Amino acid sequence: MPELTHFNTAGDAHMVDVGGKPSTTRMAVAEGYIAMLPETLRLIMAGGHEKGDVLGIARIAGIMGAKRTADLIPLCHPIPITHVDLALEPQPEASRIRCRTTVQTVGQTGVEMEALTATQIALLTIYDMCKAVDRGMSIESVRLLEKIGGKSGHWQRASGEARSSTR
Predict the structure, then answer these.
(1) Would 156 be classed as within a structural domain?
(2) According to the UniProt record, which cysteines are disulfide-bonded?
(3) Which residue segment(s) compose the domain that 44 sits in?
(4) 130 is annotated as contributing to ligand binding
(5) Distance in angstroms (rounded) separating the CA atoms of residues 63 and 114
(6) Is residue 83 one of the residues assigned to a domain?
(7) pLDDT at 166
(8) Of 11, 106, 133, 156, which is least packed with CB atoms within 10 Å of its CB?
(9) Pair 129, 58: CB distance under 8 Å
(10) CA distances (Å), 156 to each of 82, 120, 143, in order?
(11) Does 109 map to a domain?
């Protein structure tokens, strides 16, 4: 089993030194869902929310979250993000919204945390904007789907796979 990289030999938390790693193109894709009452989803899709365009605001919040990941997660490196694509897809048949985020950079470390953070922030923004009408919403299945670049190369979650070991 691989060792945890954020601890030194004394067991103290530290930021991993990526200074000697080459800069490569890196990409990560994450997804997550927010389940809600059908009436809440209809309100969002109709654009009738008094706070404004829920999905548009959530998209911008998620992009901002990707850019601020190093400020939120203590041992993350600040990364020059080159692209964020955040798509919010209403799924009326399941009474939920899917968030899928792709983040890219050219750098010495990956953007998995940025993709996961962007996804969470977008979903949290939907919750915040709609909690007055539906406090029972549930953020679910936030996970990494794919990462490309770096020493570990390409990793992709197997279809239907809920959990994965490092490969």
Answers:
(1) no
(2) none
(3) 24-149
(4) no
(5) 9
(6) yes
(7) 44
(8) 11
(9) yes
(10) 21, 20, 11
(11) yes
CATH value at residue 140: 3.30.70.640
Distance from C-alpha of 78 to C-alpha of 72, rounded to nearest angstrom: 11
Distance CA 30, CA 24 (A): 20
Q: Tens digits of per-residue pLDDT, 15-34?
A: 666 666 778 899 999 999 99
Ligand-binding annotation for 114, yes or no, is yes
77 annotated as belonging to a binding site for a ligand = yes
- 75 marked as part of a ligand binding site: yes
At 164 the pLDDT is 45
Q: How many domains does the chain have?
A: 1
In a domain, 142, yes or no: yes
Q: List, for residues 91-137, the tens digit of each pLDDT value.
A: 999 999 999 999 999 988 889 999 999 999 999 999 999 999 999 99
- Residues noted as catalytic: 128
